[in-house]
Amino acid sequence: MTTRLFGEPVRRREDARLITGQGRYLDDLGGGALAAAFVRSPHAHARILDIDVSAALDVEGLVAIYTWEDLPGALAEPLPLLIPHPALTHGRTAYPLAREIVRHVGEPVVMVVARDRYLAEDACALIRVDYEILKPVVGIEEAVRGVHLVHEDVPGNIGAHLVQEVPGPGGLTAREAIDAAPHTLEFRLDVERSACTPLEGKGVYARWDADDGSLRVYSSTQTSTSVRMAIAAKLGLPLPKVEVIAPDVGGGFGVKIVHPWPEEVLVPWAARLLNREVKWTEDRREHFVSSSHERGQVQHVRAGFDDEGRVLGLEVEILHDHGAYTPYGIIVPIITSTQLLGPYKVGAYRVEFSSIYTNTVQVTPYRGAGRPQGVFCMERTMDRIAAHLGRDRTAVRAANFIQPHEFPYDQGMTFQDGRPLIYDSGDYPEALRMLKELIGWDSFPETKARAAAEGRRIGIGVGCYVEGTGVGPYEGGHVQVTSDGRVHVSTGLTSQGQGHETVFAQIAATELGVPIEKVSVVTGDTRRFGYAVGTFASRAAVMSGNAIALACRKVREKALRIAAEALEADPRDLEITDGMVHVAGVPSASIPLATVAVLSNPLRYAFDEEAKRATQFAGPASDDRPPVAEGEEPGLEGRDYYSPVRSTFAAGMHAAIVETDLDTAEIRILRYAVVHDCGKLINPMIVEGQIHGGVAQGVGGALYEKMVYDEHGQLLNASFMDFLMPYATEVPRIETAHLETPSPLNPLGIKGAGEAGVIPVSAVIASAVEDAEGITIARMPVSPSDLHHLRLER
Amino acid sequence: MKPPPFGYHGPATLGEALDVLAEAGPDGKVLAGGQSLIPLLNMRLAAPAHIVDVNRVPGLDGIEAGPSGVRVGALARHAAVERSPEAAAAQPLLRQALRLVAHPVIRNRGTVVGSLVHADPAAEMPAVLALLGGSVRLASRGGEREVPASEFFTGPMESALRPGELAVSAFFPALPRRSGTAFHEVARRHGDYAVAGVAAAVTLDEDLRIAAARVACVSVGPVPVVVDVTAACGPRPAASAGWEAAAEAVRDRIDPEGDIHATADYRRHLTGVLAARALRDAASAARGEES
Amino acid sequence: MNETGHHVRLTVNGVVREATVPGRRLLSDCLRHDLGLTGTHVGCEHGVCGACTVLLDGEPVRSCLTFAVTVDGHEITTVEGLARDGELSPVQRAFTECHALQCGFCTPGFLCTVTAFLRDNPAPTEEEALKAVAGNLCRCTGYQNILKAVHRAAEIQAEEDR
């Protein structure tokens, strides 16, 4: 009998409640709470002249109306700039409620609290705000002209400017390398804005306990520990008096790692002030105009290469639109700049980005976090090199690959974690071989010719990426075996559908040798685990998974020590199987882990039958040793942390076959193939699910989704009618194959998988459409209307 | 996204409903399926003082199909009309078009008459009514009037419905013998409002030559644009008809606008493509009927 | 202004439930907040995402595009009513077997939609299954496993009917 569950497609333990309507998402809590709603700016850039709430005061059920003027102390200050960086010379963040100036449509101006959301919205509708309209700055080109400013004190609308340069062989600069190269290319690429768009928006629910002077806050967040610290700081509360819990969260994809959102500090503040429970549930329109967007970039590329297609020098200049504020710093363009290199070694590399203010919703990481743009840039470059040389696109890529024997491979740059960009492991040639086989790359020319004979136009595309996952600084895990034999695992980071309750239970069950049914997992609850960073950057499995494994190993060691004493055996001869500690090969010499848990905690009082065994007169004890030995602690529990020296680098390669309609220019994905390497798989079923979901989001970004702002800064498609998230009919069947190159950096040998699926999709689809049409694709997404016009321009 | 407050009225008879509507005048809005109205309310883009919910009014859910055509009552859901074999037999275009209306779950609740009254130029049912030369029956306390499609659609989201009136039914005429219909559209996503769409009806003479050919186009004007392409097709045998001339005639007649999903030029091009496809299918359906 | 309350009586998951609600109360809010059945989720409130789909007299409808008072006297089935006597329905079982949910937020809408679909069409083709779920948005799964689950549910249903 084995309790080894690591690597098995174990069914999810979350599902039982989620498929019966018993999940508890934010708005499912606090049935009796007051509801908050916000008056948001209808203008992209304006000065607030006057706020007149008088008409709203008659709304029945109205409880309170707040503006910036009402906010005390730290709450009246701008929200934190979460990730400062020396290059972010002009970082700016918003006030929780607008102070004097609004800088994007949707910025909160007035907070209303009422008996229910209907009434709160009624009051919002009656509040009159007079604005003096200022000139809005919309679009990257307009912003860099710098004629009008988003922030008066940010010249040229440039928030940050960063250059990273990696010299080539012989110390050549990228420019020198390109100039000296046999072939050069220069072009521009455009990537549109999209957004995470989880099906559940954000939400905050706060309960103030006046007797206890404590606050409990539920938030649909990707980081409860950090929200807790922000609330304590903003409200001037001692940290131990604030608890933050992420309940079931209906998807995140990055937007919920940003914190504190204005509502995350305002709702608790109002709850304390009113001494009433208050809840805010973001609606879909609010989510479009007041959460975050991502992706929008313009890239200028220069590449120099040899006859084989080997890149000798690469220069990329990125204009990154970060919207009105920079609460999350410049992580997105940093990731674009560094992860752009993918599985390739380029001779010399220079990347320069400007991160630019516009009067639009702020830009923070969305699944992939700058990588889709970087991969789009590099893979478009590879395709253009192939086209220029008349070589096979995969051959050009292969010519540039880092080879398996070259790991660890130092790309010579600084990654988003502030640490060197050193790839830990990978096997890119093998991944490409598998992908070509999976999609039938080599036989595609015949397939294409057959289709052409039928009057159909098809094309094939490919894209490769490397993803730094499992970024630090750390995560922790706590594991406790209670006297009933149950194993309680907790970790501080949060879950938004990744199946953490299942995979962490698999790890704990495997490490401790207990049936998985005995294991329960809690995430994102600061009452259970106070130290954590959060769920982002494909890090949860790597960080908390390893921390939990390490904590389990501590518990196991202690369990074996105690059991050895009880069994009068050498701990080295013991193993744990199915919840029983036994002498290897001697099943009769055993003791249940539950009993070990009892023995681990010397008792004076027996609270039940089993507990009697741990009381003072229960059996022989050593008189010369304290009941809790020096260096020991009561209880069978352990806590440990995993803090990696640097990120681990997963990789993948995708290929697609598309068909383009000759008349309507509709684009249909006929096949989509994925080869994926995230090191050792904890649960292949869950990893596949992550890939499927990522690819679907990638298809959205490649063919459907964009945020369309007009020149006034109005978001024209702030609804699911017009922001075209794919339905089932738009997503192809995804064929997957896995390669497992373990990470040498962590005990479990794993790498992150959460973002992988989305990263190369735009690049792959562009490659395939280009192949079908023979038209250069330089801008994503591409719609039938776009393709029609590209055909006309040909 | 919660509706603004309104006075709710749930009349139990048609008379009661007309009384309430008469009283409410321009401040009254009829609720049937609600699949277009309630989103507008939730977004507070509409704030009628009175909602007259006709869902309890008996006798409004009829689907009467006969040789002359199909009369659809105000409470007949899209799904019911779509599933009705009698309606499909009398006027096949109804089912062809209804399959393209949003998604099945929306069709379970939405009504055909409601979608006519909503008069969205991107919607399928107004185009169907316009193509077939159908009509909408409007009732008020003063009596009833039957408004032909050509007069019913007056602008984007605007119809001839007057304050105090209730659209009680719509009539979709049958086509002569040797007629066929088809509906083709391109939507960005399956189930979305069409970027462009064309309903076509073709009638053949005894020699299976084209006697009449018409299309109605969606999303290319303020109202459904009906184009008679009989002349462009010429009295050619349907089997060998070249539809490109008809497509060009359609492109010449429409004046689409660009939006975030498609340019005006693409819409014009696409409408021509879809017109040719719809006419070809309609013609083969017309031939099929004969054989 | 005080809004008029309307008394509504709904049979929800076989149980008669009553509430007094303003005319504008959406069925989704009535179920969730007046009746405490929070399994029905609200994802867009303009009828596009399908998370709020419930069965009205057996037919799937968007509860965010329906006023509670309109359906006074009717039968509603929500996700909480899909399991019978504590036993998961074939559709529920198939969804967990096939890993057809991740965050689970859209899942109740899919479950209700698929339940009605398979009742009417117990052995769907690929194309029919695809069309059946094509009106519901999911941001997590990429739909592949949802489609798998539709067919798996049909299988389970057929096995049980044998």
From TrEMBL, chain A:
Oxidoreductase recorded as keyword: yes
Residues of the Aldehyde oxidase/xanthine dehydrogenase a/b hammerhead domain: 20-135
One of its Pfam families is MoCoBD_1
Record bears the keyword Oxidoreductase? yes
The family database entries (InterPro entries) matched by this protein are listed as: Ald_Oxase/Xan_DH_a/b, Ald_Oxase/Xan_DH_a/b_sf, Ald_Oxase/xanthine_DH-like, AldOxase/xan_DH_MoCoBD1, AldOxase/xan_DH_MoCoBD2, AldOxase/xan_DH_Mopterin-bd_sf
Which residues does UniProt call coiled coil? none
Indicate what this protein is called per its UniProt record: Molybdopterin-dependent oxidoreductase
Automatic annotation (TrEMBL), chain B:
Record key words, sorted: FAD, Flavoprotein, Oxidoreductase
Q: Which Gene3D superfamilies match?
A: 3.30.465.10, CO dehydrogenase flavoprotein, C-terminal domain, Uridine Diphospho-n-acetylenolpyruvylglucosamine Reductase, domain 2
InterPro entries according to UniProt? CO_DH_flav_C, CO_DH_flav_C_dom_sf, Diverse_Substr_Oxidored, FAD-bd_PCMH, FAD-bd_PCMH-like_sf, FAD-bd_PCMH_sub1, FAD-bd_PCMH_sub2, Mopterin_DH_FAD-bd
Q: Which GO terms describe its molecular function?
A: FAD binding; oxidoreductase activity
Domain named FAD-binding PCMH-type: which ranges? 1-177
Q: Name one Pfam family in it.
A: CO_deh_flav_C
| Cleaved signal peptide residues | none
Q: Which domain of life is it from?
A: Bacteria
- Name recorded for this polypeptide: Xanthine dehydrogenase family protein subunit M
Query: From which source organism is this entry?
Result: Microbispora catharanthi
From TrEMBL, chain C:
Could you tell me which pathway this protein works in? Alkaloid degradation; nicotine degradation
Residue ranges occupied by any 2Fe-2S ferredoxin-type domain in the UniProt entry: 6-82
Q: Note the Pfam families from the entry.
A: Fer2, Fer2_2
Work out whether the entry's keyword set contains Oxidoreductase: yes
Q: Does the keyword Iron apply?
A: yes
Q: Which UniProt keywords are present, listed alphabetically?
A: 2Fe-2S, Iron, Iron-sulfur, Metal-binding, Oxidoreductase
Query: Which domain of life does this protein belong to?
Result: Bacteria
Concerning InterPro entries, the annotation shows:
2Fe-2S-bd (IPR002888), 2Fe-2S-bd_dom_sf (IPR036884), 2Fe-2S_ferredoxin-like_sf (IPR036010), 2Fe-2S_ferredoxin-type (IPR001041), 2Fe2S_fd_BS (IPR006058), Beta-grasp_dom_sf (IPR012675), Diverse_Oxidoreductases (IPR051452)
Which GO molecular function entries does the Swiss-Prot or TrEMBL record give? 2 iron, 2 sulfur cluster binding; metal ion binding; oxidoreductase activity
PANTHER family reported in the protein's UniProt record: OXIDOREDUCTASE WITH IRON-SULFUR SUBUNIT (PTHR44379:SF5)
Give the protein name, as stated in the record.
Answer: 2Fe-2S iron-sulfur cluster binding domain-containing protein
The species this protein was found in: Microbispora catharanthi
Upper classification of the source organism reads: Bacteria, Bacillati, Actinomycetota, Actinomycetes, Streptosporangiales
